């Protein structure tokens, strides 16, 4: 997984790191058609991900964060504006940009191994690369559960399988749509650490959507705060603390205060 | 990890024996999980009073059949009265043996024990039937035949009956296979393509509810042979529910499954065959189950009306000769055939949908 043996040519010009994707979102606005009238959800978003960077999008729920992720993943076209991946316009989903959703969305009729193998099977490379399935299962610590069906897994384990299903494709961008949102708080803390470790090992770019301020600050190098719908970027700050981070660090507390103030919640803190 | 308790629950018997208290396997925590239920049963086995009562009932059935002379009617005596009585004795002896052997009766013993109450009920039912027909002639002949008369039919006409059953099964299998395949394809197409849905859906809504047997006269002159017409009608009867339920299955698939597969690089064909169809399969099986019911009904009707073979044909033929014992015998065969096919369908479903274990069941 860590090796740079990428089986597809890197699209476009990517002079910097070979592994992580460079994502550019330029002047993107988006609206939904709700019973005939247009409902704006994103307003003039500019966002640039450097290769290998970990960026968190923070915002109130329902503000349009997930919509932005769908656009980046290529699941929907933007109403206006341009999204590019290493300079190439994003027009459709691509296995180099994998989304991990809030629900693990495992296919219940497939075993854990077959779920993880999904991407390889979809691209018809499973026969030659099946060893990567076991590697990915090993990365998330679920080797022993390879032949189990999803309904027998706990929430945290299921989300780990979803992560393995993403990692097996060796993505250059991992899009994380509140992936830990439904886990219990202890599992959540553990998996925040695991995700960061995986990101450091594999070197992909990561775009995390969350409404948990601590999660964003603990994991990301840069936090972008979005306002209420239609979402626009209202603030952006770097978090230059080195990894592995410690939750008790005074700098994190400062950043948290600032982020909550931007979200209009500082009075309760 | 809920797999283990579920498996143990499923091992429970279909019949519940009032004498056998359910022993929780957890009490035998030292045993390996496989051996625990067996150990529990052996301990609960020493006496099987219900088995003794059932054996007595079967002996009574045999004795009454053989010793109580049949009521003399205007024709020669019922054949096979004595063999029928002897067979009842043998059944009684077998039950007695199982009861006496206890745990030593092995697997057969364990399988038969829970059915004790049924064994008793069957003996009493046969006894009542025997008395009401052969012994007292309360039920008028020839419309009601005693059990030994059915035995006679099976022994002397098994060739024709077996042949009829075989023809019915073949016709049914052909028709159901056609209907299921076309129905699945149509249902998935409507569920997938908006254009197909626009055109096919109204036709289906309009023509689907028409009972397939109403098309019988039409089918008989449109198709070159009555056999082809019957295959068409049987597949039509299967087609409609399978189509509707595959369609609703595909339409109800969680949209996120598609998003996940698409971001992983899935083609449209992959989405249909590896996402939509597997996700819709539970519904498809409901459709197949409903379709089978319709198929049985239209099959028998078609055989009664024009096809010159099969159990439906046998029924009308028997009725035409006023040989009602043959009719009862054929009905019994039909019950066995139909319920076996449904059992087979359920077995296939349990195998194909084994991933559903512990999630949903219908």
Based on DSSP secondary structure assignment, what is the total number of beta strands of chain B?
Answer: 0
Number of helices of chain A: 9
- How many helix segments of chain B? 15
Strand proportion of chain B: under 5%
Most extensive interface, residues per chain?
A-B, 27 and 27 residues
| Uncertain regions spanning at least 5 consecutive residues of chain A | 1-17
| Derived structural class of chain B | mainly alpha
Structural class of chain A: alpha/beta
The residue ranges of chain B in which pLDDT falls below 50 over 5 or more consecutive positions are 1-36, 38-42
Strand share of the residues of chain A? 15-25%
Overall description:
The complex is a heterodimer of chains A (269) and B (362). Chain A has two domains: 53-96 and 172-269, P-loop containing nucleotide triphosphate hydrolases (Rossmann fold, 3-Layer(aba) Sandwich); 106-170, no CATH class. Chain A has nine helices and ten strands. Chain A has helices at 65-73, 112-116, 118-122, 126-129, 131-139, 155-167, 185-202, 213-219, 250-262, and strands spanning 23-34, 37-49, 54-58, 80-85, 88-89, 97-100, 173-177, 205-210, 222-226, 233-238. In chain A, strands 6-7-8-3-9-10 form a six-stranded mixed sheet, sandwiched between helices. In chain A, strands 2-1-4-5 form a four-stranded antiparallel sheet, covered by helices on one side. In chain A, strand 4 and strand 5 (88-89) form a beta hairpin. The radius of gyration of chain A is 18 Å and the shape is globular. Mean pLDDT of chain A is 82; it is low at 1-17. Chain B is mostly helical. Chain B has two domains: 14-155, no CATH class; 158-356, MetI-like (MetI-like fold, Orthogonal Bundle), CATH 1.10.3720.10. Chain B has 15 helices and no strands. Chain B has helices at residues 3-10, 36-44, 49-67, 81-101, 106-112, 116-135, 147-156, 158-192, 194-207, 216-222, 226-251, 255-263, 268-305, 311-320, 324-352. In chain B, helix 12 packs across helix 13 (268-305). The longest helix of chain B is centred in the C-terminal third of the chain and has 38 residues, at 268-305. Chain B is flat, with a radius of gyration of 26 Å. Mean pLDDT of chain B is 82; it is low at 1-36 and 38-42. Chains A and B meet through strand 6 and helix 3 of A and helix 12 and helix 13 of B.
């Amino acid at each position: 997984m860590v090796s740079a043996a990428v089986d597809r040519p890197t699209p476009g010009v990517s002079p910097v790191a070979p592994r992580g994707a460079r994502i550019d979102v330029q002047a993107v606005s988006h609206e939904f058609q709700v019973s005939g009238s247009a409902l704006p959800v994103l307003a003039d978003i500019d966002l640039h991900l450097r290769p290998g960077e970990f960026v968190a999008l923070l915002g109130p729920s329902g503000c349009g964060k997930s919509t932005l992720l769908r656009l980046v993943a290529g699941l929907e076209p933007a109403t206006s504006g341009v999204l590019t991946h290493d300079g190439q316009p994003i027009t459709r989903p691509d296995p180099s940009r994998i989304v991990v959703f809030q629900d693990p969305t495992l296919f219940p009729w497939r075993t854990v191994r077959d779920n993880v193998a999904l991407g390889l099977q979809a691209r018809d490379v499973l026969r030659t690369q099946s060893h990567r399935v076991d590697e990915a299962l090993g990365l998330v610590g679920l080797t022993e559960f390879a032949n189990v069906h999803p309904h027998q897994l706990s929430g945290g384990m299921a989300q780990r399988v979803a992560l393995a299903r993403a990692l097996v494709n060796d993505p250059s961008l991992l899009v994380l749509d509140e992936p830990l949102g439904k886990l219990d708080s202890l599992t959540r803390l553990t998996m925040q650490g695991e995700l960061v470790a995986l990101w450091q090992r594999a070197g992909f770019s990561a775009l995390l959507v969350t409404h948990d301020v601590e999660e964003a600050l603990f994991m990301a190098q840069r936090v972008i705060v979005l306002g209420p719908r239609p979402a626009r970027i209202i603030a952006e700050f770097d978090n230059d603390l080195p990894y592995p981070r410690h939750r008790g660090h005074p700098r994190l507390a400062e950043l948290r205060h600032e982020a909550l103030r931007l979200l209009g919640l500082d009075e309760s803190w | 990890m809920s797999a283990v308790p579920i498996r143990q629950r499923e091992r429970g018997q279909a019949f519940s024996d009032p004498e056998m208290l359910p022993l929780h396997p957890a009490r035998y925590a030292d045993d390996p999980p496989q051996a625990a239920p067996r150990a529990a049963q052996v301990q609960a086995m020493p006496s099987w009073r219900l088995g003794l009562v059932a054996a007595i009932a079967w002996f009574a059935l045999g004795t009454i059949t053989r010793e109580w002379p049949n009521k003399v009617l205007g024709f020669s005596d019922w054949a096979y009265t004595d063999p029928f009585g002897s067979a009842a004795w043998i059944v009684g002896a077998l039950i007695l043996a199982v009861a006496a052997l206890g745990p030593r009766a092995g697997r057969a013993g364990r399988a038969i024990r829970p059915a004790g109450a049924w064994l008793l009920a069957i003996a009493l039912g046969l006894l009542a039937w025997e008395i009401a027909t052969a012994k007292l002639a309360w039920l008028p002949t020839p419309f009601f035949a005693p059990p030994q008369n059915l035995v006679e039919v099976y022994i002397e006409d098994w060739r024709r009956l077996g042949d009829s059953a075989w023809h019915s099964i073949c016709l049914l299998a052909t028709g159901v296979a056609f209907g299921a395949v076309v129905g699945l394809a149509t249902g998935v197409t409507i569920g997938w393509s908006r254009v197909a849905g626009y055109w096919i859906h109204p036709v289906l809504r309009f023509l689907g509810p028409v009972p397939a047997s109403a098309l019988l006269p039409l089918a008989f002159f449109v198709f070159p042979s009555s056999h082809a017409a019957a295959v068409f009608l049987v597949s039509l009867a299967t087609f409609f529910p399978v189509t509707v339920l595959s369609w609703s299955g595909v339409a109800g698939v969680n949209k996120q499954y598609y998003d996940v597969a698409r971001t992983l690089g899935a083609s449209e064909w992959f989405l249909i065959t590896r996402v939509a169809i597997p996700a819709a399969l539970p519904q498809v099986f409901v459709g197949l189950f409903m379709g089978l019911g319709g198929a049985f009904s239209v099959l028998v009707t078609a055989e009664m009306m024009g096809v010159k073979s099969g159990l439906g044909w046998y029924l009308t033929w028997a009725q035409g000769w006023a040989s009602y014992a043959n009719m009862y015998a054929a009905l019994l065969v039909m019950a066995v055939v139909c319920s076996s096919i449904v059992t087979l369908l359920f077995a296939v479903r349990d195998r194909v949908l084994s991933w559903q274990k512990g999630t949903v069941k219908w």
